[in-house]
Write a structure and sequence with these properties.
The protein has 216 residues and is of the alpha/beta class. The protein is built from 7 helices and 10 strands. The radius of gyration is 16 Å and the shape is globular. The chain binds the ligand O=C(O)c1ccccc1NCC(=O)[C@H](O)[C@H](O)COP(=O)(O)O. It is an enzyme of class 5 (isomerase).
């Protein structure tokens, strides 16, 4: 079964829809410039709506230790997503210091971009393969931009990975078929306005992803 992460959850309706639809992961964005950003207290309150349920993923961009500590003190994160320019050494340091699994986001535009994964593989638990930000984008992710899904087809990715970038309920099935992904991540494609999740589209997205046979 395809694993689904709904990223950029900011309100109870979005959290509840993702959990009820059976998403495996929900992402909280701890990056203040993002329209999807939440404070640690907001994420803690959302997370507390349900015991168990989706893995809580904290998304950070080149975080300091203090930023990570502030979140981990109140939000039970099961995965730290690093979506900035974190080096291999910094990923290893964060994973060792905080004892939480790490998912490194890597921008993909060409086959050679996949070569970066080998160096990170020993120090991270998962990869999130995302489109590179389009020219002029102000955010490193969440830009509704897709990369060529065929780039990962038949490739050995050295850790479990999620496909991200521009996915929607209408395209996710074809994206899984073309890419061979066993997991998918979405933000913009399940929003009715930038930063505002649409519970109906969350349900549609999870349903569409579920109809695909796992290949990874
Ligand atoms: O979503 C954001 O606002 C964001 C801000 C800063 C860094 C990363 C961000 N999102 C990363 C994600 O994991 C998104 O879900 C992923 O890029 C896919 O986004 P989309 O193309 O909008 O579905």
């Amino acid at each position: 079964m395809t694993a689904v992460k709904i990223c950029g959850i900011r309100d109870a309706a979005g959290f509840d829809a993702a959990a009820e639809a059976g998403a495996e992961m929900v992402g909280f964005v701890f990056y203040p410039p993002s329209p999807r950003a939440v404070t640690p207290a907001e994420a803690a309150a959302l997370s507390a709506r349900l015991e168990g349920g989706p893995l809580r993923v904290g998304l950070f961009v080149d975080p300091t230790d203090a930023e990570l500590e502030a979140v981990l003190a109140v939000v039970p994160l099961g995965l730290i997503q690093l979506h900035g320019a974190e080096s291999v050494a910094r990923c290893a340091e964060i994973r060792a210091r905080f004892g939480v699994p790490v998912m490194k986001a890597v921008g993909i535009a060409a086959p050679e971009d996949l070569e970066a994964l080998a160096a990170y593989a020993p120090v991270v638990d998962r990869f999130l393969l995302d489109a590179k930000p389009p020219a002029g984008a102000s955010l490193p992710g969440g830009n509704a931009a897709a990369f060529d899904w065929r780039l990962t087809a038949g490739r050995v990715i050295p850790r479990p990975w999620l496909l991200a970038g521009g996915l929607t309920p209408e395209t996710v099935a074809e994206a899984i078929r073309q890419s061979g992904a066993a997991g998918v991540d979405v933000s913009s494609g399940v929003e009715r306005a930038r930063g505002v999740k649409d519970p109906g589209r969350i349900r549609e997205f999870v349903g569409a992803a579920r109809h695909i046979i796992c290949r990874q």
